[in-house]
DNA sequence: GATACAACTGGTAGCGCTACCATGACGTAC
DNA sequence: GTACGTCATGGTAGCGCTACCAGTTGTATC
């Protein structure tokens, strides 16, 4: 019958302790913390004093259970080591760091099945929002997202049919712009080199192909791809393969900067003049592309901005202020540098 | 008085629904799910059937509240874009992906204050384990870790006084080994170039200094550092600074591979022969160092393995099987390549 | 046949918080 | 003065799950 003082909880102060100390009801403490405007100035101060004195911190688990809503953002990316996603994550993180939201992340490893599994894990927790990379979810994933009961932002790409909201840019246009630039600079036998070949890479390839066909330059033998994960080492190998296949190659549009760097290093090693004999273009415009020798032309993609904006949109949606246009195209910028200026 | 059917929860099946359908008590369902061994074969099958039929998924928030333990690993790293931490995260992730643990991460931005704040956010949630980068926590952070009531693994470095467990290697030894190698190869005026200069960088510098002093080669003017975050671009600038300061420079030990790459590119640009005129050594051995031209000597660090092992140790501790030695040194490996072979 | 013990199962009572509804104290309008 | 809204506050009843303890059954032991 005597109060069985908190047998499980490690004896941390609870909202009831604060309420007792402040001489108010527990619910008033709860309100003072979550909606200060709805509690009188006086009580608010009193409660704050009690909170400070006891060192009270609300239990997020109890909160989540009672309100059927966890203060958690779920983030699903296909890779952690790909610095592109690392920057998206950084943008997400920075935009959330002064809120009380926590971030939970999942690595889909470019697998639709894994994505489904992760959504199944994230869902029951009732996250405040979900941010997922890509727009090619499986039907099951789509349904899971649609029924998640929280704002959903698909990032990295834009497309016609958002689950809820989208922030990204057109990989097709990026690929096309890069290729058109090389054609303009006088390159003719321009190869495409790509690894991993996820949906976004596929669309860059499609953009490349569109540009090449429009110029009457397309030749299937110019395309060298592999499903193997991308790396600088692999870039070097693929470049060698491409050159062996088409000795007249005079340029390469690389699916990403790692591949481009591998190609560049191989050119150095084989004493192939860049940009004179062979032009090189990358994708993403990592920091090092500008510093490389010669500096490498690349498509600058707004990765960090995608992260930031996706959070801003999710936060707005949580607050009930949905954007008029749920799809935001942040564009890209072609950075023309030495590696294609002959 | 009539059952007010689940007014908040979106009508998902609860453990009570499963229990009713299976004709058992709720607690038995709970046990069948968490400790199958303690429930008879018969009931287990019956319960599983009910679970499958209803599509029941336990509510992690309710679980966390009732058991005072969330199935969450908290991970604190100082940076997301530094690929070193990205690989640690990947290791952590891969080791946890077939468990039901979720991963919550925090970015301390190399700030002790921010680390304290994050621990304060993570703590009340009662995570299953905490993994934090570094061993130089502030006294407040240390206390928060000690009182977290869960296994704690400090990663990246080893040291004498773990909060709980540690997995890493000696940055001092790594810095010394790299420097000794350069001395052995005949370099004399070997500079140290470092950005960010977090505690680990400081220890690499100390290792460099120890090696240089032991050989009677140390000269304070050889050291060029900045608190600015590291990047390839910055590496190039620092290298130029170092060379301007000490024109007789014949080698550089770079605090990390980004810096080394910046130095290498600058050598190309300025037609400085590597390794003949100047030798270059990096730290971490990113994939690209082997492919670079010339390939770059670097200290290979077990980043992915650190992530994996930290989880393995935490999981063992959760299961009550603490390792006999709470500190594991995974070592490093000096990769000698063209950039220092003159 | 009584006793002891293990193996299994269930009831009860919370975990710490918030949704919902009720209450009382004020205004304001008529 | 009565009716009605608004504001500030509180009580009650869960949210969905598990810790704790109790009860039941079956089996081994003497």
UniProtKB/TrEMBL annotation, chains A, B:
Under Gene Ontology molecular function, one entry of this record is: DNA-binding transcription factor activity
> Keyword annotations for this protein?
DNA-binding, Transcription, Transcription regulation
Q: What name does the UniProt record give this protein?
A: Transcriptional regulator, LacI family
Q: Write the signal peptide boundaries.
A: none
What domain of life? Bacteria
Keyword Nucleus (UniProt): no
Domain called HTH lacI-type: residue spans: 13-67
* Family matches, as Pfam families: LacI, Peripla_BP_3
InterPro entries, alphabetically? HTH_LacI, LacI/GalR-like_sensor, Lambda_DNA-bd_dom_sf, Peripla_BP_I
């Amino acid at each position: 019958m005597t109060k069985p003082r908190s047998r499980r909880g490690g004896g941390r102060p609870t909202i009831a302790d604060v309420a007792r100390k402040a001489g108010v009801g527990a619910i008033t403490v709860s309100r003072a913390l979550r909606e200060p405007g709805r509690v009188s100035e006086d009580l608010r101060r009193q409660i704050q004093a009690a909170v400070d004195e006891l060192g009270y911190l609300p239990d997020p688990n109890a909160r989540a259970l009672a309100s059927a809503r966890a203060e958690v953002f779920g983030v699903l990316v296909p890779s952690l080591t790909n610095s592109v996603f690392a920057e998206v994550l950084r943008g997400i993180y920075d935009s959330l760091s002064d809120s009380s939201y926590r971030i939970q992340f999942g690595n889909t490893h470019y697998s639709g099945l894994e994505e489904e599994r992760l959504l199944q894990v994230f869902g029951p927790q009732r996250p405040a929002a979900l941010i997922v990379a890509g727009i090619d979810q499986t039907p099951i994933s789509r349904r899971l997202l649609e029924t998640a009961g929280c704002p959903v932002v698909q990032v990295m790409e834009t497309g016609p049919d958002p689950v809820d909201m989208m922030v990204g840019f057109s990989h097709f246009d990026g690929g096309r712009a890069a290729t058109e630039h090389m054609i303009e600079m006088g390159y003719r036998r321009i190869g495409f080199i790509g690894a991993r070949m996820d949906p976004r890479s596929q669309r860059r390839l499609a953009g490349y192909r569109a540009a090449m066909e429009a110029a009457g330059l397309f030749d299937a033998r110019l395309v060298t791809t592999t499903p193997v994960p991308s790396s600088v080492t692999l870039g070097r190998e693929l470049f060698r393969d491409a050159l062996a296949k088409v000795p007249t190659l005079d340029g390469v549009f690389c699916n990403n900067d790692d591949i481009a760097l591998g190609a560049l290093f191989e050119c150095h090693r084989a004493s192939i003049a860049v940009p004179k004999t062979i032009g090189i273009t990358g994708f993403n415009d990592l920091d090092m592309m500008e510093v490389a020798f010669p500096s490498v032309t690349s498509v600058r993609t707004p990765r960090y901005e995608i992260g930031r904006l996706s959070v801003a949109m999710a936060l707005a949606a949580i607050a009930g202020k949905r954007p008029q246009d749920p799809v935001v195209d942040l564009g890209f910028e072609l950075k023309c540098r030495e590696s294609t200026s002959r």
